[in-house]
Amino acid sequence: MSAGDGALAEGEAWLFPGQGAQYVGMGRELLARWPRARELLERAEALSGLPLRQLCMRGPAEQLRRPEVLEPALVALSLAHADRLYALRGPPRYVAGYSAGEVVALCRAGVLTEENTLRVAVLRGRILQRAADSLTGRMVSIAGLPLSVLETLVADNGPPEALALAGLNAPDHGTVSGRPEFVRAVEARVHALGAQVSEVEVSGPWHSPLVAHLGREVLDVLDSFCFLPPRLPLYSSVTGTLEEDPRRLRVLLAGQVAQQVRWQPLAAELLRRARTLLEVGPGHFLSGIVRRAAGTSHPREIRAVERPGGSLWPRSVLHG
Predict the structure, then answer these.
(1) Domain housing 265
(2) Please, which of 106, 149, 173, 177 could form a disulfide with 208 given CB 3.0 to 4.6 Å?
(3) pLDDT tens, 248-283?
(4) Buried b or exposed e, range 245-282, using 16+ CB within 10 angstroms
(5) Are 180 and 274 part of one and the same domain?
(6) Residue-by-residue DSSP string for 200-231
């Protein structure tokens, strides 16, 4: 099936965002209009012991991006968006998540229960918080250079244990993660080549070897949760392909925080298979990079369900 073969594409792909998608005020309209959103966020607050709604609404941004806050808040709001979208449009045909968003994708595919999804988000956030408190690192997003050029820049400007091409986002878009001095060296080269660099608003050098030690700790936590076979096609952002084995899904999720995000091959596959691709959660990063991957002539509908500022798409009013 070719990328332009719209006659063979079917259904919707729901894409769930990860850390870096957050902004102060995220979920404002969703929380005001959809009671299930308030319920989910309250449950995440109870599990985390943190004032998640207050931090989502008022910030400050530095507190909101702390993993112990952001992971449960983002997962709860993305679950609520998915719940609302299901009520309006029915189930998706495919699901995938970027980094932390993969926890939500597992839930919507039936691999994890909703309660366990919230618990995993809280526990994963605490593990990442301890790492963020002890590590120094940065992540930057780079637009306008082929991934092959980014691979060379990363290889030339730091040791592999401290600098990584953390995300393959689109053919000309990637994420770099590592120790600050090596990330700055890459930035300088990127600026010299006339490409764009933007900070990823996270608290640690995720998806790099600097956090490889977290995999064992996350796996120990995940071993206490039941993983079921997915009930619909689920794409892994670690492999970029469909995954079905619940044991493998557990291992992939555990190691994911240190692994490269292979979003570009995943998006290419979904652009062939799905008629509509929806970013289901706060922000519009994923819909943006999928549009880059699709190109201007691609026939697919690509949307974000929460626009900047928190306004919702579609505008239909539901009362939960």
Answers:
(1) 12-134+208-304
(2) 177
(3) 999 999 999 999 999 999 999 999 999 999 999 999
(4) eeeebbebbbbbbbbbbbbbebbbbbbebbebbbbbbb
(5) no
(6) ---SS--SSGGGTTHHHHHHHHHTTS-----S
For residues 73-88, average pLDDT? 97
Split into its structural domains, the chain has a count of 2
Residue 5: its pLDDT value, please? 41
Beta bridge partners of 170: 173
Radius of gyration of the chain (CA): 18
- Of 264, 288, 236, the closest CA to residue 111 belongs to 236
10 Å Cβ neighbour count for 295? 12
Which residue has tokens 């949307």?
303
> Confidence class of residue 316 from pLDDT cuts 50, 70 and 90?
low
> How far apart, in whole angstroms, are the C-alpha atoms of residue 17 and residue 282?
7
Cis amide leading into 229 (omega within 30): no
Bridge partners (DSSP) listed for residue 96: 15, 235
Q: How far apart are CA 199 and CA 286, in angstroms?
A: 16
Same domain assignment for residues 217 and 263: yes
Q: Are 81 and 101 in contact (CB under 8 A)?
A: no
